[in-house]
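User: Hey, my collaborator sent me this sequence without any context and asked if I could get a structure. I don't really work with proteins. Can you help?
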Amino acid sequence: MDNYLLAYITQRMAEMGYPTFHFEPVRVFVNAAKAVVEAYNEYYYLISKTVPAGLVIESDTNVFNEAAGYPDFTHYNVQEFSGLIEISQPAAPVDIEFMKVVPELICREIKTN
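Assistant: No problem. I've predicted the 3D structure and written it out in structure-token form, which is a compact way to encode the shape of the chain:
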């Protein structure tokens, strides 16, 4: 993972109130016209170097399609997905790479009188 993406993820987690988190690469192999990833309380960042023509990724927080200029991708346009992620594409199979980020929730003891 390059330094820009790590810095971006760290900043995004801090913005959302998550000072600690862990991450791991995830490959989603789609062998049908549509696949679903349940990413509740998780964040997926698209890190594939290329994506197939016609790819559409929809989530509760973002919609991405290959026509959005991904071949001209710059790191200033990082694609973040969360919630129910639906991946659809006309030509199966495809292999898509994400960085999965899971915030660590901090539980604090509440004192009562």
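In plain terms: The mean pLDDT is 85. You can pass these tokens on to your collaborator as they are.
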